[in-house]
Fold these 2 entries.
Entry 1:
Amino acid sequence: RRTSKLNHMLKTFGKWIICFMIGVLVGITAYLVKQSVEFVNEFKFDQSGKYLEDERKFIAFLVYYSINILFGVSASLVIIPVGQIASGSGIPEVKGYLNGIRIPQSMNVKTLVGKLVSLILAYSSGLILGPEGPMIHIGSMLGGAIGQVKSKTLKWYPKVLWKYHNDRDRRDFISTGAAAGVAAAFGAPIGGVLFGFEEASSFWSRQLTWRTFFACLIATFTTNIILQGFDMQLHDYGVLKFGLSNKYLYKYSELIPFALIGVAGGLFGALFVNLNAHLSQWRSKFFANKKIYLRVLEVFILITITSTILYCCAAFTPCRSKTQANGSQTNSLDTSSSSILSSSGDNSKNSTKLFKLLNNASGEDKQEDKFIAFFCEQGEYNQMAGLSFNSLDAALRLLFSTSTDIFTIPTLAVFSLISFILTTITSGLMLASGLFIPMMLVGATFGRLVGQVIALFVSVDPCIYALVGASAMMAGFSRMTISLAIIMVELTEGTQYMLPVILSVMIAKWVGDFFNESIYEHLIEQKCYPFLQSQPPKSMIKLGVVDIMKTEVVTLHEVERVSKVIEVLKSEQHFHNGFPVIERPRPLDPNRKDAYGNLEYYEDETTYSGLILRNQLICLLYYRIFCHEQPLPQNPRLLGGNSNRRYNQRRFGRPTEYGYAPADPRMTYELMTQSLARHFPPIDKMNLKKEEIETMYIDLRPYMNLSTIVANETYSYSETYSIFRTIGLRHLPVVNKKNEVVGIVTRKDLL
Amino acid sequence: RRTSKLNHMLKTFGKWIICFMIGVLVGITAYLVKQSVEFVNEFKFDQSGKYLEDERKFIAFLVYYSINILFGVSASLVIIPVGQIASGSGIPEVKGYLNGIRIPQSMNVKTLVGKLVSLILAYSSGLILGPEGPMIHIGSMLGGAIGQVKSKTLKWYPKVLWKYHNDRDRRDFISTGAAAGVAAAFGAPIGGVLFGFEEASSFWSRQLTWRTFFACLIATFTTNIILQGFDMQLHDYGVLKFGLSNKYLYKYSELIPFALIGVAGGLFGALFVNLNAHLSQWRSKFFANKKIYLRVLEVFILITITSTILYCCAAFTPCRSKTQANGSQTNSLDTSSSSILSSSGDNSKNSTKLFKLLNNASGEDKQEDKFIAFFCEQGEYNQMAGLSFNSLDAALRLLFSTSTDIFTIPTLAVFSLISFILTTITSGLMLASGLFIPMMLVGATFGRLVGQVIALFVSVDPCIYALVGASAMMAGFSRMTISLAIIMVELTEGTQYMLPVILSVMIAKWVGDFFNESIYEHLIEQKCYPFLQSQPPKSMIKLGVVDIMKTEVVTLHEVERVSKVIEVLKSEQHFHNGFPVIERPRPLDPNRKDAYGNLEYYEDETTYSGLILRNQLICLLYYRIFCHEQPLPQNPRLLGGNSNRRYNQRRFGRPTEYGYAPADPRMTYELMTQSLARHFPPIDKMNLKKEEIETMYIDLRPYMNLSTIVANETYSYSETYSIFRTIGLRHLPVVNKKNEVVGIVTRKDLL
């Protein structure tokens, strides 16, 4: 017993080590993404900036555009060898995996690398997309990879990690990785944990909370320390970071506009989800039978559109004096609101060093950094360029800055419309892209717009409105609640805006839920993942388990012919990977034997005995755990035993008295566990002799799972659903009152 | 179907309304507690302050002491009629209830009122105890009460709430209430939600998170608005509130002392748990057969000790000039460290208005409020009195204040020791008391002590150390993790200290876990609640379900004699409240009849059919749902039916074809649901006729639960445990391969 306690402690300690490594690796990855993007962006704006100085606007655009195209198309091309699974945000895949769905390729190293490269390239391409969604997927892939460093590609299976080679631990590490991804991306450790719990995971435990918190903290910290060294604070820098002042606080009467922004966020969010779902459907139909290079072409076209629109917006916006922006609020708004977006072009010279904004990672807003000159003269700046000809992070920082008058109302109105449209059409392209930052940008622009309109009449601080707008818009499309609120609070480094944020999130979610479900639910549905929501579909609530189960269930006998096992494994008729094992009753006539000289049994008795999985069968085949003759099933119950007698039957691999079927010495618990992490060759290449196949048997009794939950056929559908959902089942054999197998339920049957 | 969807929506909407009401009520209660305590404390310090002015120290003490005694003893006397359940923090009861244990009296109105009154009195008694634990229990009782406004005492059962009259909804409302209690007490809505999830609940869902968040927000907000009107912010005021400045930030090298404080917190926490557990054991043995008034006497003695020690501490501390406290840090520390606690008494006059500190609920530390004069002259103050002769909230505010030199090192050393000892002996007294504030006080004093010692050598800010110390100490005794970290962050209104807080919490928990379990686990164990931890006990992990199940299981037939049902209900031999219902096989000989003229059956066949609960049986008896003759069990399977045929058997109350046993028209689903919320008279008082009892039958088939999970006797113990824990089962029938009932497992069998 002391050894087992020590083992348990070692295992737990190992989990902490793994979580630490997840944190560090995710942190480093977030840093890599951030740093590469910053480098590329700086290069891009520097190069095109050179020509801006000389007033060669078109050449500047061409440089800007061609760099965008270069990166965007590369980001798209990277996806082709890796597979479609690496495109998009990956959140549906993470949610699906954590719900218990095995999505092929979704968690392997190839996808990880492809997604990472595609993300860095795509995020530098000037498209309106964010790194958070892909970071979550990357985090979860890292979690899955570290948890069981093995690789189908490399064929490397280290022994020390065998004990984590099971579904539950893998799932936990993937949850942790996803949460660490959020934490590192936003610099929000608590928000990361809550995201993992609320949005990503379907199964969660208290131990997991604490370990995940640890990993999130390490991830945030790692990113920060590499970026800035030991001089800075935990929250000084995520991949994204805003420094809201906490001098100005809102008044309670402002809760009404905040609530209205919440309503708007919900409406726009629902609209976005709707548009996006339709667009995705159209896309998948349109590209269904066409060549994959058309999808690259699509990216090309979209980059062209995006770059053109964003550049032109900036180019056609008149310059504005810096003194205007610094003037007192009411005055400056009056004067500036007259400078409506007109078709002008009297811009000029002098920018370069303003692009240094992107270098300046420190949390403090330097006054100078707020202004992008674009073509404007010294002492002037282009307000639209601050949003459109700028990295998204920097644009967001501008929107959240406390200077009340950097932007005019028309600029904000135009940009919120443009960014909404561009975000909608960009999402779903064949490159790694996330939605958080773009939707935040849309929301912040819209919120600031509302704030500035209100500021025309009453003295308010538009930066709070920008924050509220960003929260509302994100809640509107993602329907996240508490995790979103916390992320926003952590971004603003203070709790003083919590109430407005929470209010808008709550209202946006309610309003959005009135129209449709979140974008992730739509994507999951569209990708046909058998995702189990926490509640069963209402339309089916009155059914029983017999209405949904597969009745054509493939069963195996406790001691089964090798030929039958191979036949079952090769067959593609059945769609379940767990096979109920049934007992054979005693022989009717001990003198009757079948063709192989074995006793014949009633074939209509199918008493349920246990469950065996496909990969267990393959493993048994591979190691040739065959027996020469079929031993008699010696279940004492069937030999007339007393049902009150105590049997010491235990789980697989332990000594057993039940049916007197000890495990074969060639197949121990350790070997089986290790084997399940391996990748076996197809059955045809296992060099099984024809003789073996035809005459030998496999004794499944020591290996089958005896502790499976079994449903009686009287079960209701909703009960079945809730068992699947709470325990995370994959197969549920259904038996009748005589314990005969009459069917099997898998996840897909529930939907 | 449309009706059912509407009903579902109405039910969900109802839940939101109930959560809103929980929030408002908990908020008001928190306000009441806060306000009454403030009033009483003010009265107390005002009265004794009068005599302090005249230098009549002993009379001042007598006044102070007698008020303390008055309230403390009343708080204890209140418990006597209500019962022991109302004393202590109530957190073990809440955890136990949410784990699925029915603890008698733990959630009823009498306990609620008793606890509330006792809390207000006890919190004003000068004892070192806090209101948070009892507020959690009060919140959960309010949650349970509002969720199903019914009362055994008042016999009032409103119809509109029937649909929430089930275990799951009640449990959810109680979780919400507990979380709202934390939120209102600390002014920390997010911390409240996380507390509910991490510490209080064993079952949690995503829907619950969001509704609980809502309730927490409402609770926090209600308390704030009543206290201060609409001028203030969400976080301006919990029952407890600190205003840490965010000007000074720590250096990374300070993480080392923070980690050491974490270690110390873990050690002291473990020591506290150990001492407390022993003391509680000693108490329960000592008072076991003695009169309950001895427990009141214990309270009396403890108040005497506490008041004397705290008063004397203040009285024997020399006065200190206010200018010293305001001087620059290093200088003042040098000068002040010489003024060691000496036996002096040259204190004098002038206090009164300083007690106004307690009135001053606003978040801003006024300079004047930091000083308690006690006997000192104008321009001087008594540093110890600020801690000991003050309300605990005010003392905490002082400890967290940024003024670096209010306290000298000896004062802090003495007070941290005294408060640790007093907290240890106070906890467990017969009055409503919590541990959060006292342990926070101990931790903050200790932390500030460490900070000031370090400040002798390096320039640091002791208030951060106080915060870290408080976090570490709370983590050390409660082993809370993420919820504690968030509560501390919410208290400090900023995330800038998150890293130190998290670090110390993490280390304190690890260190503490090395020695023992949390105080709540110890209390739960001591109170013998069958609490299921999230992991099964390691010592039993290799057992099977047959090793732990009760084999003497009481079963009922599908159609059972009334006499048998009554016999089963009256018997006290068996310890399970759910009875497996078994099928009778077809009659052996249709001509053989028993004494009542019914067919006789094999008695050794016990095929499992469903599960019926004790209160369902009582309800059936009460409404006399009897049938005259015993209908033949017409299960088609036993009549030779094909097991592939689809039967439309559903859950209770729905039309059924299974065995052709429709529900009796007198007992509908609605009536049953309503009835289960009622309190029935004992069976002897139901006026059942002897004739009915002897000749009539009850047909259980329409009412029994057909969707219960059933364990095969091959189940492993750990599998069984995890099913109980994840699904929240109470009864698990165990069957053999022929589906005959061979045993039953209840929660108590698992431990």
Entry 2:
Amino acid sequence: MAESTAPDRTPTRRGPDPRRRSERARTAILDAAAALMGEVGFARMTMEGIAARAGVGKQTIYRWWPSKAAVVLDVFQREAGGDSEPLPDTGDLAADLRTVLRATVDEYNTPETDRISRAFTAEVQHDEDFARAVTEDLLRPHMRAYKERLRSAREAGEISPDADLDVAVELLTGPLHHRWLLRTAPLTHDYVDVLVDLALRALRP
Amino acid sequence: MAESTAPDRTPTRRGPDPRRRSERARTAILDAAAALMGEVGFARMTMEGIAARAGVGKQTIYRWWPSKAAVVLDVFQREAGGDSEPLPDTGDLAADLRTVLRATVDEYNTPETDRISRAFTAEVQHDEDFARAVTEDLLRPHMRAYKERLRSAREAGEISPDADLDVAVELLTGPLHHRWLLRTAPLTHDYVDVLVDLALRALRP
């Protein structure tokens, strides 16, 4: 944002702070895109539609995002709570995995996140370019965070030295995602605990 | 099909055999529905559209299926090779799981099955009624077949007596489905073998 290099405005100056106005516009754009994803889906969504819904000009969107896919990826980053952070590392792998996967379950059980995640999942099936962006920008960093935590556990001797860490990540996240996606059973913390126990039985030395 | 109660027509009788004509109509309807699922998706597909594409009257479709969801479920049953059959039971759980999951991978790697499965996955996210039908009519019978095979393995002492069989099924199918759905890595027979080994380490007594 170019505005952020301007000196602070004094509170007595008339008119809104341009940085706060920018921030409000960004939020309105992301809110509009999130709503349209759920209502009309990615394919039928347009930059014009987002701009109209957000009450901004189309050029305001293009100032920050090159394409609607880029906007929608940011919607999802925001829903997912920002960029992929490293997993907690307390030295107890089972406890750390329970913490993270219970939080994931809580997110999936939030109607807004559920709605947007399902809209994303549907679009990933329809649109290969969008699928690639989602995989590279959202999913891989997320899976890498799991993998790093498992690597540290492997170094600490908590999991087998010859465990395939990519498959190990899928063993933890795949069943939970499957249950959420296909709505076969409720997602609960108890379920997470059973899953972590089973996966660690598979991975221990 | 009411026609099947009629006596066989002799080959000398003029005109097509009505049972064969019915069978051709059914096939044309399922082909049309499969094509439309991929092209316009479930939500925008109509019975009229299926009828026009199949070259039959709409009443011909209603003779066999009450709704477009019912037609589309039959498309998928056909793609999936009919109703859920029991898993093989040779007495060697690992070998049987490898056989079945390798066949699943081969199916996913078939462009036509991939296309229809992705169309289904997208629709399940959009439409809760369709989701329920898919879960109850396709997915649960499929998961039950795995569960029965695991139960027989548990009785044979191949897996732990206190293993949660529902979670065990997801441990086998979830990671593979995750990899297919999110296109994170290729689906190969080697991957299946690693996955089966890991899952059985988790489940063994």
